[in-house]
Specification:
CATH class of the largest domain: Alpha Beta
CATH superfamily of the largest domain: von Willebrand factor, type A domain
Order of helices and strands: HHHEHEEHHEEEEEEEEE
Strand order of the largest sheet: 3-2-1-4-5
Shape: elongated
Structural class: alpha/beta
CATH topology of the largest domain: Rossmann fold
Radius of gyration: 39 Å
Helix content: 10-25%
Distance between the termini: 117 Å
């Protein structure tokens, strides 16, 4: 008898479902052909109507059988008990392995900070009965905590530190798989939190012997970048002015100082302005001839510079202008 029935012997009552079939076979009418003189005046019954009536009778018979089967199942009182109850209700304890990539590539754009935040979100959704292991993966695999509760696992995240080495995520997943294979819990999950650089994950199919579900979480924080996209020196009517374009690739508005520097060696600030850039906005900044307070502006080497308060890529914060060639006069 199935072990999910409270009173399995009462399932024998479902055998009563055979009663309608037996009665149907015993009591069904057998047609008898009777000839009489006026038969030729009667209209023949369409075959389509006969098939429809037969189909209705079969469906009615099936419904009667199904009703008796369900009645027998109800008397048997089906219920998932023991180890099966938590699995059905989604409350079964899990064995979790959280792998955090701590290789050198995680330094870009605060990836490691975002990875720790993702790990905290996973632990906050975990149940108190879950067993959690936290693993740091770089050149070598390091176990921070093993088979502990979510609260202690979250506290261990404070010990995460970035390593100046390449990543080896494949070995870390295999290590977590061996760790979960030793768990007595049947539901097993591996969370792989990384920027998923190709160099850190060697090719080849992973063979998870523990039967764990591997869940990758890609860390991709939004760029907060302000860049100088172009610059130009304009000569007109014997006067010189400067124009540059500043673009925001960020998702937030910022107030950005823009400077014009003449003579890169002395870094003399010839003019400066402050602009407000909305998210993903581009503006043109113009330094008129009267705003540039330095001699040699028409020929000297110069560069534009922005001083953004939040900028993940400072390498594009300058735009250089080559010095103009002076014309020699013939005598």
């Amino acid at each position: 008898m199935p072990d999910f029935l409270t009173t399995p012997y009462l399932l024998l009552g479902a055998a009563a479902a055979a009663i309608p079939i037996v009665l149907h076979l015993i009591l069904r009418n057998r047609a008898e052909t009777v000839y009489f003189g006026a038969m030729r005046f009667l209209a023949a019954t369409p075959k389509k109507l006969l098939r429809r009536q037969r189909l209705k009778q079969i469906l009615l018979l099936l419904l009667r059988v199904l009703a008796l089967l369900l009645l027998g199942l109800v008397f048997a009182r089906p219920l998932f008990v023991g180890e099966k109850m938590p699995a059905i209700l989604g409350e079964e304890a899990r064995a979790l392995a959280i792998i955090l990539d701590t290789s050198a590539s995680m330094a870009a754009q605060q990836h490691l900070t975002a990875a720790v935040k993702s790990a905290r979100e996973v632990l906050q959704k975990a149940k108190a009965s879950d067993q959690v292991s936290v693993i740091a993966s770089a050149g070598k695999t390091e176990v921070l905590v093993e088979k502990t509760d979510p609260v202690q696992a979250e506290a261990a995240l404070a010990n995460i530190k970035r390593q100046q080495s390449f990543g080896n995520l494949r070995d870390a997943v295999q290590f977590a798989d061996n760790l979960l294979a030793q768990s007595s819990l049947r539901r097993r999950q591996i969370y792989l939190i990384s920027d998923l650089q190709a160099a850190g994950f060697s090719p080849g199919n992973l063979n998870l012997k523990s039967g764990a579900e591997c869940i990758p979480i890609a860390v991709q924080p939004a760029w907060q970048n302000i860049a100088l996209t172009s610059g130009e020196r304009i000569m007109r009517n014997g006067q010189v002015s400067f124009v540059c374009r500043v673009r925001s690739f960020a998702k937030i508005a910022q107030e950005v100082p823009v400077q014009l520097v003449l003579d890169p060696q002395s870094k003399r600030v010839a003019a400066s302005k402050r602009i407000t850039l909305a998210a993903e906005e581009e503006q043109t900044v113009h330094f008129a001839a009267g705003e540039v307070t330095s001699k040699g502006a028409s020929t000297a080497a110069a560069y534009f510079e922005i001083l953004a308060p939040i900028d993940d890529l400072p390498d594009d914060n300058r735009y250089y202008l080559a010095p103009e060639a002076t014309q020699t006069a013939r005598v």
